[in-house]
Write a structure and sequence with these properties.
The protein is mainly α. The protein has ten helices and no strands. The longest helix is centred in the first third of the chain and has 26 residues.
Length: 259
């Protein structure tokens, strides 16, 4: 039952992630926290592997599409995010040493605050004047912060990436979604390699990881196919409702931490 549930969660999450550019980890992580009963470090690792597989599939699928990655600024953001992903592993291991409950509480509180912030920005986006950052140093620094946040939360980047790309780089919805996946690809690859090289891979069941990765790949392919058929406003609506669901799940998980 756990294997089937993990597959279905990952398939649905990464399909939505492929459409909107959130990656899927922002759904997988809190849902598994709520229902899997697995340790927080195991959930973060499994979620990260799934998101990595999904992003690879999505980026391959997007080749030849109308929307393109901004290789200049996008690569600087991605490199910064990769550096942040590596550095954040040290922070995660330090917080983990304080106890599993402390990690869970910190992750859920940060998730709620960030998601509500992105929701507030989304609701007021039409009234907020966006920027058009061009400085290489600024791009890399913004990417670094994104990598730190996404690696610690184990979500790949999700809605945080999109809000940053909207505001700092004046990207439209679909361009931001594709560039978000590009950033996630770099940050999750760096985070995964860092975990392997440090020898800090948590205990997990191989069948669970395999079905999650398969679900992630299928979801990434399906999500990019659906995205091509949706308008930007349709993607925006999906993103809005998704933020509400993520906030509700994170609030539930935070309450469970103290139960």
């Amino acid at each position: 039952m756990q294997i089937l549930l993990s597959f279905l969660i990952c398939l649905l999450a990464t399909t939505i992630g492929g459409i909107s550019g959130i990656g899927g980890g922002v759904i997988i992580k809190p849902v598994l926290d709520a229902f899997s009963g697995l340790p927080v470090n195991t959930v973060s690792f499994l979620s990260g592997c799934t998101v990595l597989a999904m992003t690879i599939a999505s980026m391959l699928r997007s080749r030849g599409g109308a929307k393109k990655v901004e290789l200049g600024r996008g690569t600087l953001l991605a490199i910064g995010a990769a550096a942040g992903g590596v550095l954040d592993k040290e922070l995660f291991e330090w917080v983990l040493g304080a106890g599993g409950t402390a990690v869970s509480v910190a992750q859920q509180v940060m998730m709620i605050v960030l998601t509500l912030g992105v929701l507030a920005y989304t609701l007021n986006r039409s009234r907020i004047v966006s920027r058009d950052v061009r400085s290489p140093a600024a791009c890399a620094s913004i990417g670094l912060v994104l990598g730190l946040l996404s690696a610690f939360l184990g979500i790949g980047g999700g809605p945080i990436n999109l809000a940053v790309l909207y505001y700092f780089f004046s990207m439209d919805t679909k361009t931001a979604a594709l560039n978000s996946l590009y950033i996630i690809l770099f940050s999750q690859s760096a985070s995964f390699l860092g975990t392997i090289l440090r020898g800090t891979v948590p205990e997990f069941r191989w069948p669970v990881l395999i079905v999650m990765v398969i679900g992630g790949i299928l979801g990434g392919i399906l999500g990019r196919s659906i995205s091509k058929k949706l308008s930007s406003s349709g993607v925006d609506r999906l993103f809005f409702w998704l933020l509400l669901v993520i906030t509700a799940i994170s609030c539930y998980n935070l309450v469970c931490c103290f139960a």
